[in-house]
């Protein structure tokens, strides 16, 4: 039953069916995209970055830099050991601490502290940092990432929960620290 | 026998696949292409088949959970009968597949096979290369050890540098705020479902195009490709002078594929499986992560690029490379096919090969990394200490205890991050040495805060003795009035 010059009933049905399936596709697509983006959107929820205790301040004698570990605040049973994160705690004196991320500010490899030469060195691409975390040499473009910290009832606590990376988040991270100086 | 024949007939009556398969196998090809140079594509596909089979076999045991993956690899290596061999086959298969895909690409490029009308075949091939690289990277992650863990950290750090989208991209990549269970699960999904699925689809299309457009004829110098008459000429090459693919071409493909499988099995048997290295426990920081062989060049590049250039090169470089590869058949879609008359094409391949080879070679001894275990207790060659004054020997002690060795070699021992110091006194005067040690510079950290004056004096006194016999140490002309000291 085609009309010359126009389109037939069948063609109209075909178009309607395609439109219908298009709408169904979009309706299904929204939750799928939401699911895929959940690692990004989840970040806004409370508890994502929390204060975690690294233990009593007595464990970190003044003038020394020591390795500390903590369990990431957001962790699942399937994470195994990967949710146990290391960091470097430098106790200068009194209540003055610096807590450095283990990740090199270049590409995230684990930096190691060498007390004799007073340097953090990275085994991957040769980055080096001074004792206060400032960049000493190599490919990093900035100093080590630092966690905000507080001392509560003689316990050293840091605000952590996200792997620091040299991108935007890290810069915000860095800013938070400078805006709120340690022991604020 | 008659029963088999009857069964075959019964099936074919329903499936009706016999005739098209026969037609495909016996399609005419140019006589010259039944050559040993034309075997790499089919070999790559054969190895992909091996990867599918061994991959499924590994999935029978492997546990894609951050807490269990490493243990399940140990079980595969040590407890499951021949588990180590299947892992080795899969690992060596991966290396062979990448190598063969690269050789295939070079051959196609040098034989001008990407020119009209095979542009799309080339473009699909470019994506097949990307997917093969993707399989290699995600596969390295599934071997969930320390290299995998910190390799993911490197991937995350690179992604984080993308302007604006960086931080959300990191979370998408890792599946959460840190490298953990969700990270491994999504790389498992990529390695086992997403990329292999796309690979199969693209291989299918790639093959359809090869069959529809015909295999590239052997390039003859001077026989130019023109859009106007190429199809006609090619038709003559295949239908008038050609030979059927089966059996003329196919037996070489079969022999080569079999040979490659045999080589993979031999490597697997002789060298065994890759890793896993240490447990993926981020608290174990005594580790020096290294990427797998095919990513070593990238590791070198990341170490050697000037810091300011790194982010632009990392983010823009791959885009440019992709654009160049995709645009190639459109820019030079016609003309000469033979490598004998395409010097720039040959030079390009040589340049890329030399560059990648050099970077890979550098990465295998990583001179930019400090030697993390240059122990202070290691012996110093006697030629550097004998006949020295007490002050100079004290300096040698400072040199040893302040980890100068991590970056500087003395004799054959020590890092290569900084220059070897065997002849440092020839290059620098005492004053210059003091300045360099205290203030650093070039790529050297400043040691001013870490050396007291006595240590600095001793260290420099030692360094001033480091010049080979027959060469004069550097001296400050303004102080010695131009005379040799």
Structure description:
The complex is a heterodimer of chains A (184) and B (485). With 184 residues, chain A is of the alpha+beta class. Chain A has 2 domains: 9-36; 45-179, Rieske [2Fe-2S] iron-sulphur domain (Rieske Iron-sulfur Protein), CATH 2.102.10. In chain A, 24% of the residues lie in helices and 29% in strands. Chain A is built from 3 helices and 10 strands, in the order H-H-E-E-E-E-E-E-E-E-E-E-H. The longest helix of chain A has 28 residues, at 9-36. Chain A is elongated. The model of chain A is unreliable at 169-184 (pLDDT under 50). Chain B has helices spanning 2-15, 18-25, 40-59, 69-78, 83-110, 119-142, 146-159, 166-174, 181-213, 230-240, 245-248, 250-271, 296-304, 307-331, 343-365, 390-401, 424-427, 430-439, 453-463, 477-480, and strands at residues 28-29, 243-244. In chain B, strands 1-2 form a two-stranded antiparallel ribbon.
What structural keywords apply?
heterodimer; A: 184 residues; alpha+beta; Rieske Iron-sulfur Protein; 2 domains; four-stranded antiparallel beta sheet; three-stranded antiparallel beta sheet; 24% helix; 29% strand; disordered C terminus; B: 485 residues; mainly alpha; Cytochrome Bc1 Complex, Chain C; Cytochrome Bc1 Complex, Chain D, domain 2; two-stranded antiparallel sheet; 20 helices
CATH topology of the largest domain in chain A: Rieske Iron-sulfur Protein
- Reading off the top of the CATH hierarchy, the class of the largest domain in chain B is best stated as Mainly Alpha
Q: Averaging pLDDT over every residue of chain B, what do you get?
A: 91
Lateral arrangement of strands in the main beta sheet of chain A:
5-6-7-8
Overall strand count of chain A: 10
Write a concise synopsis of the structure shown:
Helix content of chain A is 24%, strand content 29%. Chain A is of the alpha+beta class and 184 residues long. Chain A folds into 2 domains: 9-36; 45-179, Rieske Iron-sulfur Protein, CATH 2.102.10.10.
């Amino acid at each position: 039953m085609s009309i010359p010059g126009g389109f037939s009933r069948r063609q109209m049905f075909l178009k309607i069916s395609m439109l219908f399936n298009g709408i169904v596709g979009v309706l299904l697509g929204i939750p799928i995209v939401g699911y895929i983006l959940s690692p990004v959107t989840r970040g806004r929820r409370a508890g994502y970055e929390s204060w975690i205790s690294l233990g009593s301040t007595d464990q970190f004698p003044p003038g020394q830099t020591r390795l500390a570990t903590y369990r990431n605040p957001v962790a699942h049973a399937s994470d195994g050991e990967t949710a146990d994160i290391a960091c470097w705690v430098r106790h200068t004196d009194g209540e003055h601490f610096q807590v450095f991320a283990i990740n090199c500010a270049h590409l995230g490899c684990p930096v190691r502290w060498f007390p004799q030469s007073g340097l953090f060195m990275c085994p991957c691409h040769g980055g080096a940092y001074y004792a206060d975390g400032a960049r000493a040499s190599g490919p990093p473009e900035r100093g080590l990432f630092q966690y905000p910290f507080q001392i509560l009832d003689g316990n050293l606590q840091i605000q952590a929960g996200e792997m620091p990376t040299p991108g935007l988040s890290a810069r915000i991270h860095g800013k938070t620290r400078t805006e709120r100086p340690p022991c604020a | 026998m008659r029963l088999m024949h009857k069964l075959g007939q019964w099936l074919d009556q329903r499936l009706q696949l016999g005739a098209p398969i026969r037609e495909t196998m016996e399609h005419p090809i140019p006589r010259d292409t039944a050559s040993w140079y034309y075997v790499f594509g089919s070999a790559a596909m054969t190895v992909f088949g091996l990867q599918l089979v061994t991959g499924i076999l590994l999935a029978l045991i492997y546990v894609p959970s951050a807490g269990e993956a490493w243990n399940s690899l140990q079980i595969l290596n040590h407890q499951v009968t021949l588990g180590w061999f299947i892992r080795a086959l899969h690992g060596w298969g991966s290396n062979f597949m990448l190598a063969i895909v690269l050789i295939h690409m070079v051959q196609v490029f040098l034989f001008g096979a990407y020119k009209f009308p095979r542009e799309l075949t080339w473009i699909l091939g470019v994506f097949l290369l990307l997917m093969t690289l993707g399989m290699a990277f995600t596969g390295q992650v599934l071997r969930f050890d320390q290299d995998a863990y910190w390799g993911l950290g490197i991937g995350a750090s690179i992604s984080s540098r993308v302007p604006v989208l960086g931080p959300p991209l990191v979370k998408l990549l890792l599946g959460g705020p840190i490298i953990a269970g969700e990270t491994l699960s999504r790389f498992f999904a990529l390695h086992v479902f997403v990329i292999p699925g796309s690979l199969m689809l693209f291989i299918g299309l790639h093959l359809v195009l090869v069959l529809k457009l015909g295999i590239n004829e052997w390039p003859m110098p001077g026989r130019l490709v023109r859009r106007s008459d190429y199809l006609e000429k090619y038709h003559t090459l295949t239908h008038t002078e050609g030979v059927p693919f089966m059996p003329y071409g196919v037996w070489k493909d079969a022999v080569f594929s079999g040979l490659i499988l045999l080589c993979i099995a031999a490597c697997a048997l002789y060298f065994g499986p890759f890793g896993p290295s240490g447990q993926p426990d981020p608290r174990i920081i005594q580790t020096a992560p290294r990427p797998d062989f095919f990513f070593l060049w990238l590791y070198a590049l990341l170490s050697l690029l000037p810091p300011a250039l790194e982010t632009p090169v990392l983010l823009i470089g791959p885009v440019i490379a992709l654009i160049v590869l995709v645009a190639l058949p459109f820019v030079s879609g016609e003309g000469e096919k033979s490598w004998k008359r395409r010097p720039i094409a040959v030079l390009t391949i040589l340049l890329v090969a030399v560059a990648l080879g050099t970077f890979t070679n550098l990465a295998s001894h990583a001179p930019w990394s400090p030697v993390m275990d240059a122990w202070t207790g290691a012996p110093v060659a006697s030629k550097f200490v004998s006949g020295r004054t007490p002050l100079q020997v004290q300096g040698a002690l400072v040199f040893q205890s302040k980890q100068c060795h991590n970056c500087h070699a003395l004799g054959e021992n020590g890092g290569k991050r900084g220059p070897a110091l065997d002849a440092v006194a020839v290059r620098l005067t005492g004053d210059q040495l003091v300045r360099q040690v205290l203030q650093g510079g070039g790529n050297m950290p400043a040691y001013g805060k870490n050396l007291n004056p006595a240590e600095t004096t001793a260290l420099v006194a030692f360094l001033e003795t480091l010049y080979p016999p027959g060469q004069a140490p550097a001296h400050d002309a303004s102080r010695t009035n131009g005379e040799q000291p």
